[in-house]
Amino acid sequence: MLTDREWLQLWQATLETLYMVGLSGLFTVILGTPLGILLVLTDKGQILQDGTINKVIAAIVNIFRSIPFIILIVLLIPFTRFIVGISIGPTAASVPLIIGAAPFFARLVETSLREVNRGVVEAAISMGASNWQIIRKVYLPESLPSIVSGITVTLVTLIGYSAMAGVVGGGGLGDMAIRYGYQRYNMPVMLVTTAVILILVQIVQSFGDYLSKVLDKK
């Protein structure tokens, strides 16, 4: 069993994980959504067709998606220190979390938008809708349930990434599992922290699935 001090540390670590996932999740959606939209709309035959922009964005997204997260954390230490003034702790860990997850989420948004019925888009164009109106009133509403599912997948991924951030002093449940569990051969701490991570994943997944079904009017 855990001691009173370890339970207190577990609570603090859980709050740090929720902070990291919440902060990085917010900025991942803010950055990833427009990237995903541009990936679709600048493609061939789309309303903002531009092969150069499309290839540049696709290349950036693919590069950052292909770098293993644990390596990305280390590579971004100087950038993280420049942005937040420190390279350890939950706030610092949020920087590589955002950079690692935004391209991943952009691809999910791209997939969601490509599922929108082309006929609906063409109908909006024929009625004189502007590009912004097509994005705001056609693409986003039609793909919203799928995008919510993408957000859910991304948040679950971020929970796993945040645990890996503990390897380099990122704080949170991963940090506690490594420092107070693995390094001190304290199996109860490792088991409990793992259980909390699994519970967080189940809560996020269940709520995301429910919200996606509510929004799906098909």
UniProtKB/TrEMBL annotation:
Cell location: Cell membrane
GO CC terms, sorted: plasma membrane
Family: Belongs to the binding-protein-dependent transport system permease family. CysTW subfamily.
Annotated organism of origin: Tepidibacillus decaturensis
Gene3D superfamilies in UniProt: MetI-like
Keywords recorded for this protein, A-Z: Cell membrane, Membrane, Transmembrane, Transmembrane helix, Transport
Protein name from the UniProt record: Metal ABC transporter permease
Bilayer topology: Multi-pass membrane protein
Domain ABC transmembrane type-1, first and last residues per copy: 14-208
Segments traversing the membrane: 20-41, 53-77, 83-106, 147-173, 185-208
UniProt superkingdom: Bacteria
PANTHER family in UniProt: ABC TRANSPORTER PERMEASE, D-METHIONINE TRANSPORT SYSTEM PERMEASE PROTEIN METI-RELATED
InterPro entries: AA_ABC_Transporter_Permease, MetI-like, MetI-like_sf
GO terms for biological process, alphabetical: D-methionine transmembrane transport
